[in-house]
Every structure is written in C-alpha cells, then in structure tokens.
Design brief:
single chain, mainly alpha, 2 domains, two-stranded antiparallel ribbon, elongated
Length: about 100
C-alpha cells in the first residue's frame, strides 16, 4: 500500500456507504416534506419560536401562550381537587364565559 492512498476496496466501500446515506436522507427529507404539507405547515413554521408561559399552579408546566388560558383553567380545577374525568363537564359549564 502506498503511503497516503487507500486501497480501492476501501474507497469503493466508503462510496457505497455514502451513497446509501445520501439515499436515506433524500427519502426521509421527502417523507418529512410530505408530512409538513399534510399538516399545513412549512419549513418556516418550524423555525418560529412560540412564546410560552409558566402555569401559576405548577411551575413545571410550561405551555404555549396560545393555549395558556385553557391550561390554567384545567390546572386550577385539578388543584381544587377535581378529577381528570370531571374536567370536561366543568369546563363546558364555564364555556359561556368565553362566548
């Protein structure tokens, strides 16, 4: 073997491996783009940073600002002793506040 040169089998094996990686990435990029389209999203949507707020009832709950009010209401009820299966009926009773 010459110094600084790889045997042709090694080069061929590496090329084959790189080609398989390239095919894998291209296939999954296409699948990802299809899923984004299916969800009505774009690459730019993924780059947006959503503002978040901390729940006043549980500091471990960090939720997107757009669902903060609903989350806080659920957490308030849980904190008050309601069971999870009771939440839907309680929240429906409060819906008139939001209309």
């Amino acid at each position: 073997m010459l110094q600084g040169r790889l045997p042709s089998e090694v080069v061929s094996s590496r090329r084959q491996y790189l080609n398989s990686l390239k095919a894998f990435v291209e296939t999954h990029e296409k699948k990802f783009a299809e899923k984004l389209l299916e969800l009505g999203m774009s690459d730019e949507d993924l780059e947006k940073v959503e503002s978040k707020k901390v729940c006043p009832y549980n500091k471990d709950h960090i939720v997107p600002e757009k669902v903060y009010n609903k989350h806080v209401e659920k957490c308030r009820l849980l904190h008050a002793g309601f069971q999870k299966d009771e939440l839907d009926s309680q929240l429906q009773n409060l819906d008139f506040f939001y209309k």
